[in-house]
């Protein structure tokens, strides 16, 4: 069966005034894959995520299911299943867990899907189910991250973009996030994961791209990158 391409960037360039955040990036994501973009602070990971989702203008090309992103509206991209769980989480702080989750399904008309998916999310993250009526802002960082992922799942993603989900989280919470990958993939969701935590990315990705200063400097499978001297010395503590 041929690979179906979900996302492809070719010679992708993004600048903020004089700052060049992406300098000719090439990458692709096939249906069903978990692809991870790793790299240090300022490498351009969030810029890539924001460009893919139509928030930032660019040069070069980035296509979602063969359509140039610049020609598709942000809302349309969401309706076509590209759902972005941002680094800042963007929760509604004074709304409850349940309300935040239901807002993630704003573009979904099928009410039975919404109820079913709500159940899926509560099964995935039982800590959310224990806190259905709690305001988002009063939750721990880890719980907020689970809520942000849960809300993204409520939008019926086809491509789920997880922008640095582990940022600021304790190792014990990382396990709660980790265990969600399998069930999410079982729903047929393709995942683009941006990460500074290379160990976490190695654990979940099928393929990875190392970004430095807006350029891909290494790409390969986790096995290939684990065996790479540069990755080991610079990102895995030798
Ligand atoms: P981090 O892990 O710290 O979030 P990142 O890999 O996601 O880093 P980006 O946030 O994409 O990196 O930043 C890439 C570069 O673009 C940085 O030099 C940053 O200062 C710059 N940049 C990002 N957003 C803006 C903006 N809105 N205006 C100006 N410069 C920006």
TrEMBL record:
InterPro entries per the UniProt record, alphabetical: AAA+_ATPase, ABC_transporter-like_ATP-bd, ABC_transporter-like_CS, BCAA_Transport_ATP-bd_LivF, P-loop_NTPase
CDD domains xrefs: ABC_TM1139_LivF_branched (cd03224)
Single GO term (MF): ATP hydrolysis activity
SMART domains: AAA
Residue intervals of the ABC transporter domain: 7-238
Record's signal peptide: none
Pfam family, one: ABC_tran
Keywords: Amino-acid transport, ATP-binding, Nucleotide-binding, Transport
PROSITE patterns, sorted: ABC_TRANSPORTER_1, ABC_TRANSPORTER_2
Example of a GO biological process term: L-amino acid transport
PANTHER family: HIGH-AFFINITY BRANCHED-CHAIN AMINO ACID TRANSPORT ATP-BINDING PROTEIN LIVF
Family the entry assigns: Belongs to the ABC transporter superfamily.
Name listed for the protein in its UniProt record: ABC transporter ATP-binding protein
Source organism per UniProt: Salinirubellus salinus
């Amino acid at each position: 069966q041929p690979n179906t391409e979900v996302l492809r960037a070719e010679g992708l360039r993004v600048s903020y005034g004089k700052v060049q955040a992406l300098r000719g990036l090439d990458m692709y994501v096939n249906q069903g894959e978990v692809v991870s973009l790793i790299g240090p602070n300022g490498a351009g990971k969030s810029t890539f995520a924001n460009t893919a989702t139509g928030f930032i203008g660019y040069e070069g090309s980035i296509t979602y299911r063969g359509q140039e992103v610049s020609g598709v509206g942000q809302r349309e991209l969401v309706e076509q299943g590209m759902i972005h769980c941002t680094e800042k989480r963007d929760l509604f702080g004074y709304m409850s867990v349940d309300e935040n989750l239901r807002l993630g399904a704003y573009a979904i008309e099928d009410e039975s899907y919404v109820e079913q998916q709500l159940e899926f999310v509560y099964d995935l993250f039982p800590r959310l189910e224990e806190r259905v009526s709690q305001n988002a802002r009063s939750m721990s960082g880890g719980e907020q991250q689970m809520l942000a992922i849960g809300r993204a799942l409520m939008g019926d993603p086809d491509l789920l973009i997880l922008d640095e989900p582990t940022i600021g989280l304790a190792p014990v919470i990382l396990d709660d996030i980790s265990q969600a990958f399998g069930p999410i993939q079982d729903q047929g969701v393709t995942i683009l994961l941006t990460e500074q935590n290379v160990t976490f990315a190695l654990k979940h990705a099928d393929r990875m791209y190392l970004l430095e200063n807006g350029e891909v400097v290494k790409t390969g499978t986790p096995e290939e990158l684990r065996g790479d001297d540069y990755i080991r010395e610079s990102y895995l503590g030798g």
